[in-house]
Structures are given as C-alpha cells and as structure tokens.
Amino acid sequence: MTQQYPIGTPGKPWSSAEKKAWLSAQSKQRDYGNDVVRRIDHLRELFQVETYGELAYAEHTYPLFIVRSQPWRDDLPTALVTGGVHGYETSGVHGALYFLETEAVNHLARFNLVVAPCISPWGYETINRWNPDAIDPNRSFVVNSPAQECALLMKYLAAQNIQPDVHIDLHETTDTDNSEFRPALAARDGTTNDNWNIPDGFYLVADSQRSAPEFQRAIIEQVKPVTHIAPADEHGCLIGAPMVQEGVIEYDAQPLGLCMGMTQARFVTTTEVYPDSPNTNPVECVDAQVAAVRGALEFAGQQR
C-alpha cells in the first residue's frame, strides 16, 4: 500500500524549503520538563544525575540527562539503557524512567548502570520520529553524526570511557509508522513508500553481528508474563525481516547507524512494543520495557 505525503513532489527529495514546511507543521503536544525532567530530579538521592549536553533548536533548548550508578565501581561491568531515541515512542522513555524508579536498585550489585531516558526530547514533545532537521536519530549513530542527539551521547560515552557490556535500547512500533512516518520518509527521500505489517505484540531486534540467541530468548521469556509476543506474519517475518526465533528479528546495526550499534557491548538488543494493540495498554507497555531490561540484566549477570 502506498500513500501520498502532503509535502513535496513525488519522486523528488526534499530541499530545505520542504524541510522547513514540515517543521512548521509540528507543534508541542506534551512537556519534557514535567514528564521527564521532573522524574529524573527525584532520582538524585539514589543515583548520580549528569547533564551530558543541551540540544539547541531555534526556539527551544533541551538539557540532556544521564542517570548512573553512585558510587561507580571499577570491578563491575556496565549496562547501558537508552530510551527515547525516537521521541514519539512513549514507553521507551517511560520504561527507562520506571526501571530507574523501581528495578534498578536490584541490579547495582552486579552492574554499573548508565541510563539515558530521553535522547530526543524535541521528538518526545512533538511526538515525532525525526529531529527538527528531519533527521532520524536511529539512523545517525555514526562518526560525525548529523544529529545532535546522537553526537552528544556518543561524545559523553567516549569522554567518560564508558564501554558497556550490555546495551538495551527501548523502542515501539506504532500505527503511525504507516500513517505518518514511513510516508514522510519516502517523501523526504523521493522514493516510493510501501507500508509494512505492524506486528501485534512485543518483539526484539538483535544485532546480526552479535545475535546472542540465548540472551534474546531470556528477554522474551521475561516479557511473556507481562504482555503478548508478536507472531510472525504469513511470510515468517516481522516488519519485513525474517523471524529467527520467537519474537526476534535481526538487523546489521552499525552500518544502519542504529543506537544499538554504537557500542561494542557483548549483549545488545532493541525492544519493540505495539502500544496500539487492542490487547495491551500504556501501563502494560511500560511494564514490558522494564521486564525486558530485567531479563537482559539477569541473563548477562549470570554469564560473568
């Protein structure tokens, strides 16, 4: 199924004029300060909270926060949790925060924890996949990244010499992927859009270069009691990729500029929940993200 996007000319990539037109159509729909920063502030008694940069866009600036273990223990491996790479994916942001508020203390004996709850606050506020420059952060974790969101986080990790053993990146797949974001992508790039089947349920995207099947399976098993796992489509796929085991597909993360490809972590995965399913709700989606982090850390902790 193809869908015409209201900005641009079919078959012609956007110029700066079309990007400005797209940006002018965006508006604030929720508040990063109230929804995210306020909750981070409440964590300061238990964790070290650092500002690792500030996003500066035309009319807005957004401080970016890392929440990490205190004290830091050099004898422990490090686990990185990232949320809100795509700001519109709500349970990624709130799952990272809820993990910090509830489960994180249970893992401090085994791991140094580093959590970036909301990497794309402008995307969070405007419910967008892209940043204001019409750049997808989750295709921009590359050297000399064109996305401030990615460049600032990578710079911080390098400066702090943080080399995670585990990295869990929290995402969603939503109906708006087909109604808005994939048509916008095709319009921006001057290509033809073909919508994909949205998986109904939770699934994981593993890095094909570090697939770790038992690690992925342990996460799926932890999530099963919380929410349903997405079944494969009639072609044995999820979002066009072959399902390699129950609820798991694989991408080659680093060449695609995916967040899960930015470190050399031994155990890495990207979570995906489907908040638009009639079989779930927002609370369950957040709980599924927390369960995924728990499953990842419990498995990785047993491998030492």
TrEMBL record:
Residues 28-304 form the Peptidase M14 domain. GO terms for biological process: proteolysis. GO terms for molecular function: hydrolase activity, acting on ester bonds; metallocarboxypeptidase activity; zinc ion binding. Belongs to the peptidase M14 family. This is Peptidase. It comes from Pseudidiomarina atlantica.
